[in-house]
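Try this one yourself first.
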């Protein structure tokens, strides 16, 4: 009787270890662990719209090159407002 219990515990433990290693392997392959090469690096930065002063992701901003500067806006409407207010005289 005791041998059967020990054998069942051993089989259960081996199955648990196999299942755990399989899950870890599949999570690692799908990139869900957070152990990616870019861990610790900044993917994007927040910048402030020069017109409405809202902070937004630079990656999603609307770009304008003006007077030798790269400007980013939260929307095309803010970009157009900036252009209309800063027309050369």
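Now uncover the answer:
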């Amino acid at each position: 009787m005791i041998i059967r219990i020990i054998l069942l515990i051993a089989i259960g433990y081996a199955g648990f270890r196999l299942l755990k290693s399989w899950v870890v392997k599949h999570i690692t392959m799908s990139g869900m662990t957070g152990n990616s090469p870019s861990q610790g690096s900044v993917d994007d930065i927040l910048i402030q719209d020069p017109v409405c002063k809202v902070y937004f992701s630079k990656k999603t901003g609307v770009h304008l090159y003006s007077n030798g500067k790269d400007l980013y806006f939260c929307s095309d409407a803010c970009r157009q407002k900036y252009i209309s207010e800063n027309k050369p005289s």
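Discussion: The mean pLDDT is 84. The chain has two domains: 1-35, 46-85.
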